[in-house]
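Suppose a classmate hands you a notebook page containing two proteins, each written out with its sequence and a corresponding row of structure tokens. How would you begin to make sense of it? This section walks through that situation. The first entry is reproduced here exactly as it would appear on such a page.
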Amino acid sequence: MQRQVQCDVPALALGAVAEQVSRLQSGQVVKAEGFLAQRSLKIAQLVMHIDKVTLR
């Protein structure tokens, strides 16, 4: 059975990757690579930590 799943996941970029992301234009399509982690010890919400961004 195929299912369509949608969700919103906040993303975080640091250092050089953050600088690269800040130069992106609204509407640009990108591929973001990284990992998912819990926001903090007390907050179970997932956050994507971006390690690499490439334009598509």
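The notebook's second entry, a different protein, reads as follows.
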Amino acid sequence: MPAEISDAAAAAAFRRLVAHLRHRHDAQNIDLMGLSGFCRNCLADWVMEATNEAGGDMTKEEAREAIHGMPMAEWKAKFQTPASDEQLAKMKESVAKNRPRG
């Protein structure tokens, strides 16, 4: 995290991002992956990892519910559409650009 962004500002921006993603169900995870190499599920995984690294105990399901605002199965049933071959190819190309975690 850049030193010029305080923890309080980062937390507020994160909460705003989560609220935005909860509102914009039309922004499909597959399209987010194709453009940016991450999606709601990735964000949930990062929250889970950070929580657990800090001594917490969060499951993948709990993290995804925290980001989606509802259980993952419910979100998928309500909002997820089938991915096209073009979307899948774009996602694969985009994810290949991601920097390895380390």
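A careful reader of the second entry would note: The mean pLDDT is 94.
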